[in-house]
Amino acid sequence: FPGSLLANGGRIAMSGLAQDGVAPSRFALKLNAMLVLVMVDCLCNGFADHLWDPSHRQLNVALFVVPIAVHLLMLVLFFLMLGHTFLLKYGLLLELLGEFWGVLLFWVLRLAVLLATRIPRLIAALQQWSPGEYWDSPSRHALFVVH
Question: How far apart are the C-alpha atoms of 135 and 55, rounded to whole Å?
């Protein structure tokens, strides 16, 4: 049957692209990049609340900026992973946003929680608050748990 999977004696041409236009090696690279971004985000969030010494001021600023940058990169990478789809190939971005509105909603909510937890922590680090002064607020405890 010409044009079917059985063409060429049952073999599929190995051009690096599957029939739907997905390059497995590029897609795997994007998935691995997403995994690295998740691990960097976990490391930043795991150590950010333990550094209170004034000598860690620059590191505290970095631990404020890096998770925000990682969060933005995750969204970009999400759309790059969808780059081979019909919707992005033919410029139907609004249709794509309609399909993935939940992902975008949670992305915005997580960004809001990230900023709500990191901005007070950055202020506390730059003004050299003690850990007790920072953690006296029940709202900071709640945001820490939500984040």
Answer: 20
Q: If DSSP codes are grouped into helix, strand and coil, which group holds residue 50?
A: helix
Separation between Cα atoms, residue 88 and residue 82, nearest integer Å? 7
Distances (CA, A) of 112 to 35, 97, 105, 115: 22, 20, 11, 5
- Please tell me whether the overall predicted TM-score, pTM, comes out greater than 0.85 for this model: no
Q: What's the average pLDDT block by block, 10 residues per block, for the chain (147 residues)? A: 46 49 80 94 86 87 94 91 74 78 92 94 90 88 87
Q: Report the distance separating Cα 116 and Cα 137, nearest Å.
A: 13
